[in-house]
From TrEMBL:
It is an enzyme of class 6 (ligase). It comes from the Archaea. Its cofactor is Mg(2+). Residues 9-22 have a biased composition (Basic and acidic residues). Residues 1-22, 273-294, 434-461 are annotated as: Disordered. Tetramer of two alpha and two beta subunits. This is Phenylalanine--tRNA ligase beta subunit. Its main location: cytoplasm. It comes from Natronosalvus hydrolyticus. It catalyses: tRNA(Phe) + L-phenylalanine + ATP = L-phenylalanyl-tRNA(Phe) + AMP + diphosphate + H(+). Transmembrane segments: none annotated.
Amino acid sequence: MPTVEINPDELRELTGHEDKRDDDLKTDLFGLGLEYEGETEDGEFELEFAPDRLDRLSVEGVARSLRYQYGDARGVSIPSTNTPDWTIRVDPSVPDERPYVTGAVIRGVDLDDDALDSLIQLQEKLHATMGRKRAKGAIGIHDLTMLKGTAATEGTPTIRYVGVEPDGDRFVPLDADREMTPVDVLEEHQTGKTYADLVSGYERYPAIYDDIGLFSFPPVINGRRTEVSTDSRDLFVEMTGTDQWTIDRMLNIVCYALAARGATIEEVTVEYDDDESANADSNGSRSAAGGRELVRPDFSTKTKTVTHDRIESILGIELSTEEIIDLAERSGLEATLVGDDNGTAEDRAYEVTIPPYRVDVLHPLDVIDDLGRAYGFNDLEPRYPDVGTIGGRHERSRLENAARTRLVGLGFQDLLNFHMISEAENFERMNLEEADSGSDVAGSDNSGASDPAYGAGEPATIKGPYSEDYTMLRTWVTPSLLMVLENNTHRRYPQDLAEIGFHAEVDDGENTGVSEGRAVAAVLARHDAAYEDAKARLQAVVKSFGGDLETPPTDHPAYIDGRTAAVVIDGEKVGVIGEVHPKVLVEHDLEVPVAGFEFDLEALQ
């Protein structure tokens, strides 16, 4: 879980509870779901936070949550904004891979050392989480007094978001003492080397200009001319990315943090050259000659509807309408009764308003979780269920345990890996292509029939992943075992690994749209690993369950041609077995042969 460093003295000051002892603060923070992990050398709290609550990535956000918990703040708070003075104009030359931009002007902020450190930490934490290491969204914060906007026809200062040649204009980047071209930054500057892979494949690089020249090279580095210091009072915040919604929500979190420091938020007009560029989020947009305009930041709210009976059912307590509205307000939300207050719990519902900085509220259950925290989960009284039952092991669990026992008896080490994975690990690094509808991606048996390779099904992906390492549910288990072998190259061989694990793929025939299952996967990594070794162990497992095993030759991109077979149990094709392809071994830095198999657990029933 990610951590954030918070100065307890600053937290006391921002909450207005300067008499709070450290132990009391830790208890209050735990009530919010922030776990104390220790202290830094400077005495700052290291807090582990839920990765969905990105509004708590700074001391300002944590203080806001505490003020609601203490009852010092109530309801949805939206900072007031001044009308736009600055404009960001998006040029048609901007790379198609990074077409979106947003921004805001911050005036009158008091940046002492602590406030500046908090702002930098918030920037980097947002980069690492919602920005997916700057790939999806990157933040640039500049000293406004160092910018000179080109006068537009409306009389407002304008800066330009454009695409430039790699060896185009020169500028002095942060932590440098000489002018460099964008390609020089990627090749010679330490920060440029770190993030070079984000833009190195572009024909033109993203760049932001004012009337003086280039001052920002997103998503890599800002220019030294506009560097922010404790003397800065007016700031220009710009964000670029691959998705308008993402960068707009990142901007909201930054604006709320700076507003907590007493800053005034000033809107910025974003001018796109065509309508398509702004279609991702039309809130606050208006048509303009030759294109479309967005007014940012977008502080519009959204609503969720939750029923009274569901709140009581989930929390296990009885609440009045007034109590639910009060809990919502103490959570930073606002609830309005829909229906008759004198009716039954099933007839009553609430329309709950969500503030702009909350990116985590996707379902009514998220609202109920907030209400429960405001009530206090520790204050819920335990009670016996109305119906007494005797627990027992599920039949699927019995089957899993039995199969796991057989594998351990054959010398395999039992593993439990994450169900989530990335597309690169699941497909690309396994030399496998995702099967499109009607496509034939490897996989033909000796009958000449062709079908998608095992594991090549369409993945169930996460719409807004917070990490590029976990973007989808794995479609097969073997890639997870290869990842473990890759991490264990410093250990002795042989390494015989097995896992009985979850996998899923998109299936329109299922009510949920996704078919789920469990597979038995195993790999043998040793200097003499061969197909015969894997088949002997597979045969022992299947035979112990009374199954009939056949292994007709087949093709699979992850395995060597001629050393691969389909796993057919009781006449049904349920998996694959073979020697792992050299391309896959090289991709995982493995220097010994690997043989393995994978098949559906249900085939053993």
